[in-house]
């Protein structure tokens, strides 16, 4: 039998709830306080203009609204307390609002006021004006007039219906809405919070919406700082306290929307990104509703598994649950389908017709719509941002829609916007379109790569004047007026005083890609370029007319000191013409970056350029003849081939390359029984690998053989590349060798392939066409002792000359 709470129990619970929310702002809140002859439900105080005001709170959780008689009774109870100055003011808090007559009575009493519990919450949070602004957000730029309802992948209902069901579901599971660039995530976020704001303003029992744009978060931050900055400097709020927001979130009174986790990720380290997600997880409470939006390709799969699923990779093929991260429900915004494309284009063209007198009639809209569907690929129109750009261009009756690609779409759109800026104002015509477009590329690049605040917005006063170097002055009289003239553009919008945003993130990404396409970076600038190339910027680069920019980038890549991500090096490796060009470079002249590029190529087209056997022979040549850095990279790449293909030839090449290297560098072939002595000037990481990882054995069937500890070889080589020279970027939270081992080798499911059986000496020597060199290898490996005694010694004047002939031939692939 269910026990229902008594009237007293219900009243106490209501009183305690009011005391709890008041306590988030007023620490001296007390309940059941004796004042004269009256036991007051709640008492607290606050300062008002230098005077301490004491409040008494009367809590009424009645099933019906309070009447005027109820209020008269309260007046009788509290009047004497106010007259005797035991209280200064009395607040009545009830669960039901009062009608006009009781309200008029309360207003007539100087020391009396009334609020519902929901009104009190909103008053304490101080976001009423902010929520009213959110209510109009969906109609910003008349978005409401052309918006087409978003859908989620695999869902028959609209995204809005899905979110509404989630919002009223009692389960607290946080929700992550994924979507690539231009799929309408931010528009959907605006629609969501705007709809919820209107609901709340009509019914205070609904959740209050809060929207945080994460693009402005660029460092590790705590929730207190994140929300504090939002509601003390960016948004209208009255005496905001994070403790109040935190309490209301726990009580299920808020809908918190975090938009743009991908923009946050671009500007910070992986460690800071994970730390911020731990902070976001603090918002996930029993009654909370937390929603986050962003691009799924912004973070690697392993990082996504961790922050959204609470799963951390462990070892080669294992996973563990990380209790410091929570599991989010993940859904993805779908592309437009055919009917949605048509609906959006029609809506937006009609919207443009109402604001643009150059669009002659509705018949023109219908005609242009037919031309768009005939001339423009449906795949290009499936992203809302693309469809919007096409409609903008099509609204000009003179614009030719034929021959559209993603690149020409953005290129034409940018040019048209700037031409429109110039044509509309006579004073702007002294500065041409090309110069204005050049400035926009430089501005986008600077904003994308600058340190500090997020890359999507910038302070007008912080724009470097150097961006204007070489650009015409027009009619400007000083640098400030010149900057103002170039900043005037419909590509950027001013949201706050002096703070400018690019109108759409993809506009900035296209401009960044175009600036990078035209650039020849110095050796030192490759780190900046590598950090700038997100997945979407690479997509814009690849959509361009050619890939000649890669040749220019490669000219200085070899001299870069790093740290470079392997993702950046893989971008070079994906270009078959470039990898073929690198393969023609003599082994002794290859840089470590060159070796990484040819060793990382895994696309089918790249593999067709060179066989595994030829690649293995090339890597063995580099290992035996190249400089220390290139040879060390060759070690890692050969181990990677063993991981990916199970190739024993890769292991054979690794062993043979190490042995030939030390033979060429040793002091003399005489007296090697005591050790292989190598001068300090020629002794480096490959020689250390040879000494630490190689072992001579005697096998029953094959006789003398050599084995190699691949894990130890990888550990030594990885340390050199990531720590000693810092060429390859690594995650500071991961092990020394782990990051490079993972990035380069991509271990298969069967970890046993990581090892390799001992290789007979005869099997090694048969890959060396030169008989003299082969005999030297055979003689060295038949010496007594299990280890390769490679010893460093100091000697002046020792030099080494590379062999002009190819030393190795791995003509068959053994597995």
From TrEMBL:
Residue runs in coiled coils: none
InterPro entries in the cross-refs: NACHT_NTPase (IPR007111), P-loop_NTPase (IPR027417)
Domain of life of the source: Bacteria
NACHT domain segment(s): 175-351
Protein name, as recorded: NACHT domain-containing protein
Annotated source species: Pandoraea anapnoica
């Amino acid at each position: 039998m269910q026990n229902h709470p008594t009237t007293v129990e219900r009243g106490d619970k209501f009183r305690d709830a009011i005391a709890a929310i008041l306590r988030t702002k007023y620490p001296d809140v007390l309940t059941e306080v004796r004042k004269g002859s009256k036991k007051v439900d709640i008492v607290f105080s606050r300062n008002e203009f230098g005077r301490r005001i004491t409040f008494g709170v009367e809590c009424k959780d009645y099933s019906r609204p309070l009447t005027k008689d109820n209020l008269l009774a309260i007046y009788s109870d509290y009047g004497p307390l106010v007259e005797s100055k035991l209280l200064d003011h009395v607040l009545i808090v009830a669960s039901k609002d009062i009608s006009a007559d009781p309200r008029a009575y309360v207003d007539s009493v100087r020391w009396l006021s009334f609020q519902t519990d929901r009104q009190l919450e909103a008053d304490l949070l101080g976001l009423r004006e902010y929520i009213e602004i959110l209510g109009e957000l969906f109609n910003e730029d008349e978005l409401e007039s052309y918006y087409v309802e978003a859908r989620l992948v695999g869902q028959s209902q609209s995204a809005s219906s899905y979110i509404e069901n989630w919002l009223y579901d009692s389960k607290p599971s946080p929700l992550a809405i994924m979507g690539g660039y231009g799929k309408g995530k931010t528009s959907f976020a605006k629609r969501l919070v705007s709809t919820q704001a209107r609901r709340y303003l009509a019914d205070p029992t609904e959740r209050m919406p809060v929207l945080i744009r994460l693009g402005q978060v660029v460092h590790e931050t705590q929730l207190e700082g994140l929300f504090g900055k939002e509601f003390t400097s960016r948004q209208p709020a009255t005496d905001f306290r994070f403790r109040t927001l935190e309490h209301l979130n726990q009580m299920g009174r808020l809908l918190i929307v975090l938009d743009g986790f991908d923009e946050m990720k671009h500007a910070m380290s992986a460690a800071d990104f994970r730390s911020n997600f731990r902070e976001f997880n603090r918002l996930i409470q029993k009654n909370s509703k937390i929603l986050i939006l962003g691009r799924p390709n912004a973070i690697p799969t392993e990082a996504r598994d961790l922050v959204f699923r609470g799963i951390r990779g462990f070892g080669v093929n294992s996973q563990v649950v990380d209790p410091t991260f929570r599991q989010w429900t993940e859904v993805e915004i779908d592309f437009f389908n055919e009917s949605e494309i048509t609906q959006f284009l029609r809506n937006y063209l009609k919207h443009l017709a109402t604001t643009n007198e150059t669009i002659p009639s509705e018949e023109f809209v219908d005609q242009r719509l037919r031309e768009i569907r005939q001339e423009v690929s449906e795949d290009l129109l499936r992203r809302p941002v693309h469809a919007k750009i096409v409609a903008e261009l099509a609204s000009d009756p003179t614009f030719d829609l034929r021959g559209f690609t993603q690149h020409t779409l953005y290129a034409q759109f940018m040019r048209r916007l700037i031409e429109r800026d110039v044509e509309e104002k006579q004073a702007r015509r002294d500065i041409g379109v090309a110069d204005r477009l050049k400035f926009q590329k430089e501005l986008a690049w600077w904003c994308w790569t600058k340190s500090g605040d997020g890359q999507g917005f910038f302070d007008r006063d912080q724009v470097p004047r150097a961006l204007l170097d070489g650009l015409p002055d027009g009619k400007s009289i000083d640098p400030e007026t010149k900057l103002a003239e170039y900043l005037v553009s419909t590509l950027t919008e001013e949201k706050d005083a002096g703070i400018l945003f690019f109108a759409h993130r993809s506009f900035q990404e296209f401009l960044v890609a175009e600036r990078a396409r035209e650039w020849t970076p110095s050796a030192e600038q490759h780190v900046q370029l590598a950090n700038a190339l997100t997945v979407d910027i690479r997509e814009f680069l690849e959509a361009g007319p050619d890939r000649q920019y890669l040749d220019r980038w490669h000219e200085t890549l070899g001299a870069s000191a790093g740290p470079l991500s392997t993702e950046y090096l893989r971008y070079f490796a994906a270009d078959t013409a470039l990898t073929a060009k690198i393969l023609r470079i003599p082994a002794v002249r290859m840089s470590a970056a060159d070796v990484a590029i040819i060793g990382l190529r895994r696309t089918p087209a790249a593999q067709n350029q060179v066989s595994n056997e030829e690649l293995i022979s090339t890597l063995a040549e580099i290992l035996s003849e190249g400089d220390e850095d290139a040879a060390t990279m060759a070690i890692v790449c050969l181990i990677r081939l063993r991981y990916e293909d199970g190739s024993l030839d890769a292991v054979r090449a690794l062993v043979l390359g190490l042995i030939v290297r030390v033979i060429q560098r040793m002091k003399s072939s005489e007296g090697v029984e005591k050790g292989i002595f190598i001068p300090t000037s020629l002794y480096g990481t490959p020689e250390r690998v040879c000494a630490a990882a190689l072992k001579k054995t005697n096998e029953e069937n094959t006789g003398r053989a050599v084995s190699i500890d691949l894990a130890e070889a990888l550990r030594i080589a990885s340390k050199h590349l990531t720590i000693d020279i810092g060429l390859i970027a690594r995650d500071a939270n991961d092990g020394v060798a782990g990051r490079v081992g993972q990035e380069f080798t991509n271990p298969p499911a069967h970890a046993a392939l990581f090892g390799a059986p001992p290789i007979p000496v005869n099997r090694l020597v048969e890959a060396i066409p030169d008989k003299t060199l082969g005999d030297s290898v055979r003689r060295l490996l038949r010496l007594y002792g299990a280890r390769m005694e490679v010893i460093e010694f100091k000697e002046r004047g020792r030099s080494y000359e590379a062999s002009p002939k190819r030393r190795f031939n791995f003509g068959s692939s053994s597995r």
